[in-house]
Amino acid sequence: MRVLKTMISVAAIGMLSVAPAWAQTPPPTPPPQTPPPAGQKPPAPATPAEQKPAPAPQPPKPFPEGAKVGYIDIQMIASNSAEGKIAADKIKAWDATKTKELQAKNKAAQDVQTKLSQSGTVLSESARSQSEKELQKLQRELQAMQEDAQQERQDLTAKLQAEFQDKLNPVIDQVANEKNLHMVFSVRDAPIVWVHTGVDLTAEVLKRFDAKIPPKK
Question: Which pTM was predicted?
Answer without folding.
Answer: 0.62
